[in-house]
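Co-fold these.
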Amino acid sequence: MEIESIVANSALVRAREGKRFKGRSWKWREMLRFPHISQCAELAMSTERDYYSLCVKQPIGKKLFQLFCRSRPNLQTFMSLQDALVGFTRNLSTDKERKDFGISIIQRFLMRQVRQLYINSSVSWNRDLHKHLSGEPFRQYQDSMFFDRFLQWKMVERQPITKQCFRQYRLLGKGGFGEVWACQVRATGMMYACKKLEKTHVKKRRGEAMALNEKQILERLDSRFVVNLVYAYETKHALCMVLTMMSGGDLRFHIYNIGKPGLDRKRVRFYAAEVCCGLIHLHQMSILYRDLKPENILLDDNGHIRISDLGLAVKLSEGSLVRGRVGTLGYMAPEVIGLEHYGMSADWWGLGCLIYEMTAGQPPFRARGEHPKPPEMERRIQKEQEEYGDKFSQNVKNLCSLLLTKDPKERLGCQRSGGREVQYHPFFRKINFRMLEAGLVEAPFKPDPRLVYCSDVQDIEEFSIVKGVTLDHTDSNFYSKFNTGKVPISWQNEIIETGCFGELNIFGPVGSRSPDLDW
Ligand code: ADP
Ligand code: MG
Ligand code: MG
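Predicted complex below.
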């Protein structure tokens, strides 16, 4: 390895280790300084008073609303009930445990006369709880110092994002329109990956719609199995998407670059199950992904995967289909190649290819090192039966062949129940999907925090420079649609996870609403 690479890697590894406090700029408090409450008047007027958005969905809003409730004696029981419900819906694995826990909740809370609630099951408990809290408590909250503080956080959130907000570390990879770099937010110390799209490249290849599509799909998603978009901003030369940092490398790297090609069964099962959850989340939002392949599935530092690279994803309107030969040839479904109209079926085919490749250490329709011409690949995908060697157990072979069914109407995952049908396959019998969805299952492989799981810096091809493209005012409409700054839910999570919320959200003695609010 060359010295340049060693230096770049060790700088990145050091930054990652210090991610909690060390990475923060010494001016971090100033960067996150609250405006005086009088400067929030306009925001207060324009904020839609929607309980669900303000007190449930937005992480800082939720925290402040909970702090408010805990400060009111008559609302404290509701908070304890809420805590218990979180445990009830997330922590318990067997139905017996859940039942016992439910009984204990009834005993603890019903006996204490939470009379406003008519309680019978966990779903309706949650609903009834929110129904109650969204009434009078929500009205009182909006007159409290906790809501003032929420507005102050929202003002901080609105500050524009520039290149100066980040420190840049090593190059991580290269994409179609530009490079991906490791970066760190100066104000919080949080590490991210910054995907840059060179403006001249985008313009030359007419990639505007595609870039905007990727950004807009990502900002609406909130799934632990898909990379999060946290910031979108522009510099003089590039459009930048700041994404969840995935330090564990992509599945391609793990399948081929570490030991014998392929992964052991536990890992195959775990990654396949998480990808399956990710696809279900995308499909629930009517988003078809279309680019499933090992290099687009990334590992985080705990060994969990996220789907990345949503450049080819499309949002389908209710029940409609699309057409278009889109994707990477070896992974395209027969109906995509055949120019038919298709829907979510293409992704279930992709999952079949992925499970096959993780197991066999080679993709289903091409031997290793072999590069058949496109027409030959198409013929194989549409006509040939894939072969299963002795690495395939009965279960995994059965699952792959059901997902790689040529006719999309017959394929697993393409019936009414969608991805749930895939989750019920015997291959996944050992997976508890409820726990997996809640992030409570430990990954079978944890990346080594001292390693950098990607190609050496100098082995990543340099990005070429486009000549003869000039940017003008006609481009700025597109840039301004892209350049929307922070994505509220992701940014608020960053503020909480890095401890900045806890350190800054100090209130003075009860009742003294200033000067503590304007620091
Ligand atoms: P493109 O759409 O141009 O293919 P990608 O989104 O696939 O671009 O990114 C290109 C490469 O950058 C990936 O193959 C991967 O190596 C790296 N990369 C992308 N996103 C991340 C991330 N969130 N964390 C770490 N590395 C990433
Ligand atoms: Mg890619
Ligand atoms: Mg892409």
